[in-house]
Specification:
The chain is α/β, with parallel strands linked by helices. It has 31 helices and eight strands.
Length: 700
């Protein structure tokens, strides 16, 4: 089996080509850092089997970040393998820079130029480019699978020797043979010009000062100019360029405007939330709920006729059809959320969002790269945590991973919709938007505190390109939706069913294993819940069943709603009945006030994520930081729920005026104290005091 490496700049279409060649469905996206580790899959052609390795995006063979190090290490370890170097036809000048780096290394390269748009910036004569470079060049369309057969054929051909005349202009002004015992070759000279310490460390040369001293002082600039001059020369001979600028768009005058950028971003997110949680999402959810009821009724009727209203009927009605059906009815809303996120990814707007937030995130020890990870957290925290690997700085990587759970994932949608909808009705959209914003604000505050204390970040490189705005491919969107629907259904069919049955057993049987519905007494779960319930009484929901549902939510957040349905004895997928039941004091789980509901929702937003996310944190940041993360999450959830509950309760009891004035007063006092402390720290006197000790007048 022959190994083939797939190498290219970020956003050139590597993963799309990987999917097309291997018939896979790996996640692709229109931003840097989507691929953070090598992916490998086999395909066959011409009687040969090829193992295709998709590497993270790089710009050169001098790695600046984690994922670039993964790619460069793979290239060096497998330097005798065939390489497909994919280039974007719209960004050919910069993409060919990496091609030259690979050819300088002596790699066996096939250049695949990906034609993405109907009106590309460059119109290339591939045959002439192949002749000028001396290696195989194939024009393809990775998404539409155009000309992939020619690309596969080129993998079977013998390697060609590249023509790079500018290399003869590189000079070394030291004694190569004496200094480096014959190890020094042409590529080492190139790395000396690039001042690549990591390369020399890899080949066992620790003292690089002498090497770098014997090349021009501005050697990096010199080599870069040589490469770009050569690229310009060959493109003049084989390509015609339009007047269009890559990535430039009239929309950016609005979307990147310093006054409009944030309001537009909030407006877009609000529109997504409205369509997802209300209007279209609510309509589709109600339709699916009705369909599930129709499907479950005959089965439940058959069970009742066979076993009567026994524990067997209760198991199917409450635990399986009731609990699982409740969560399943939210599938349309979850699909809609992933649909809109995929549109944002493909449109090119995601890179603009990173640019908008780069300055803000830089102030709290992160970078624009963190935006990709944190936005993915709105879909699934587990997946998002994995993408934190693309941070250049180790501390920034840890912080970004720790912040992912504060982004409200799609699994919390049922909680917000059912519980919030019961008390706020149509105004629930403002509650949901507020929860999402609160999660972001808490994440920012925690990142700032960590950056000032135990996780100080270094200055990070952030290379950003603006791809042109594009419409998503229906096929790609369909693939994303199917992948997420499949994952959700697998989760429902395995984790949800299992957990709901466990909860039902614990809540239906006593420690002597008697069925409490017939024999009375206290269930195992109630006994355990009553022990912990007093801890949550200050938060406004000291109910043993609520505490039990929160514990169940550690497995998967969707289980919180299915647990409430089971405790309140709601029939299969009757979402509206669940909302109504939490209003009734006769229900096992009910909320006495809006303040209690808000407190509960805030706690659900901030407390410990699901087991899968915790497992991913362990893998990415280690045991110490995972334990610290869980402690911070529980602390923040408890303290903020307590504060918000008491503020909301005060508004309910005293009206608006008195609590508002109190809050303003407290804020003024806090600001004044902070101001005074800063003045004391800086040693600045509030007024001209000639009698003060000299030590307290460092500044005046």
């Amino acid at each position: 089996m022959k190994e083939v490496l797939l190498v290219g700049n970020p956003n050139a279409g590597k993963t799309t080509l990987f999917n097309s060649l291997t018939h896979s469905n790996e996640h692709v996206g229109n931003w840097h850092g989507v691929t953070v580790e090598n992916k490998e899959k086999v395909f066959s052609f011409g009687g040969e089997e090829f193992s295709l390795i998709d590497t993270p995006g790089i710009y050169s063979l001098c790695p600046l970040s984690f994922e670039e190090e993964v790619s460069v290490k793979t290239i060096f370890d497998k330097q005798d393998r065939k390489i497909i170097n994919i280039c974007d036809e719209n960004n050919l000048q910069r993409n060919l820079y990496l091609s030259l780096c690979l050819l300088e290394k002596g790699c066996d390269v096939v250049i695949a130029i990906n034609e993405i748009d109907k009106k590309p910036i460059f119109k290339v004569d591939y045959a002439k480019l192949e002749k000028l470079l001396g290696v195989s060049v194939v024009g393809i369309n990775a998404e539409k699978k155009i000309n992939l057969e020619s690309l596969k054929t080129s993998l079977l051909q013998n390697s060609k020797r590249a023509k790079l005349p500018y290399l003869e202009r590189l000079q070394y002004f030291g004694d190569k043979d004496t200094d480096f015992e014959g190890k020094f070759d042409r590529f080492m000279l190139i790395k000396a010009y690039e001042r690549d310490e990591k390369f020399f460390d890899r080949v066992g040369i620790k003292d690089t000062c002498k090497i770098f001293a014997n090349v021009p002082q501005n050697s990096m600039q010199v080599l870069s100019e040589f490469r770009f001059d050569f690229i310009d020369q060959i493109l003049k001979k084989c390509a015609v360029r339009s007047s269009q600028v890559y990535g430039q768009s009239k929309f950016d005058k609005i979307l990147l405007n310093k006054w409009l950028a944030f309001p537009v971003f909030i407006l877009i997110l609000s529109g997504i939330f409205y369509l997802t949680f209300f209007s279209l999402g609510q309509f589709l959810s109600d339709c699916l709920s009705s369909l599930l009821n129709l499907c479950s009724e005959p089965i439940l009727q058959l069970i009742e006729n066979s076993f009567g209203r026994s524990w067997i009927f209760d198991l199917f009605n409450v635990a399986i059809f009731g609990g699982v059906g409740t969560v399943l009815s939210f599938l349309p809303q979850i699909v809609l959320l992933f649909f809109f996120l995929s549109i944002l990814e493909d449109s090119g707007y995601m890179s603009r969002i990173a640019f908008i937030f780069e300055d803000i995130l830089g102030r709290i020890g992160l970078s624009g790269k963190s935006v990709y990870t944190l936005l993915m957290g709105f879909g699934c925290s587990t997946t998002a945590i994995m993408t934190a690997r693309n941070m250049d700085d180790k501390n920034a990587k840890i912080k970004t991973a720790l912040l992912c759970p504060y982004m409200s994932c799609s699994a919390k949608i049922p909680i917000y919709t059912v519980i919030g909808g019961a008390f706020f009705g149509g105004n629930n959209i403002f509650c949901i938007i507020g929860l999402y914003i609160l999660g972001v604000v808490v994440a920012i505050a925690i990142s700032k505190i960590l950056d000032m204390t135990v996780l100080k970040s270094k200055k990070q490189s952030f290379i950003l390109e603006f791809p042109p705005y594009r419409l998503s491919s229906p096929k790609r969107v369909a693939n994303i939706l199917w992948k997420n629907v499949k994952n959700f259904l697998v989760k429902v069919g395995s984790v949800m069913v299992s957990m709901n049955i466990v909860i039902w057993v614990l809540s239906s049987f006593s420690f002597s294993f008697k069925y409490v519905a017939e024999d009375g007494g206290m269930s195992m779960l109630e006994s355990f819940g009553r022990v912990l319930a007093p801890l949550f009484a200050p938060l406004g929901f000291g109910n043993w069943a609520i505490v039990a549902s929160l514990l169940a939510g550690l497995v998967a957040k969707e289980v919180v709603v299915s647990s409430i349905a089971m405790f309140n004895g709601i029939d299969a997928s009757a979402t509206k009945l669940i909302s109504q039941s939490v209003l009734l004091p006769t229900s096992v789980i009910f909320f006495a006030s809006k303040a209690s509901v808000i407190s509960f929702l805030v706690f659900c937003l901030l407390y410990t994520p699901c087991i899968a996310s915790i497992s991913m944190l362990l893998q990415e940041v280690g045991t110490k930081w995972t334990i610290l993360s869980i402690a911070i999450q529980l602390f923040c959830a408890y303290v903020l729920s307590f504060v918000i509950y008491n503020i909301a309760f005060a508004f309910e009891v005293f009206g608006f005026a008195k609590p508002f004035v109190t809050l303003v007063t407290v804020c003024v006092i806090v600001v004044a104290v902070i101001f005074i402390i800063k003045k004391i720290k800086n040693g600045t006197c509030a007024y001209d005091c000639s009698q003060c000790d000299k030590n307290c007048r460092k500044k005046k």
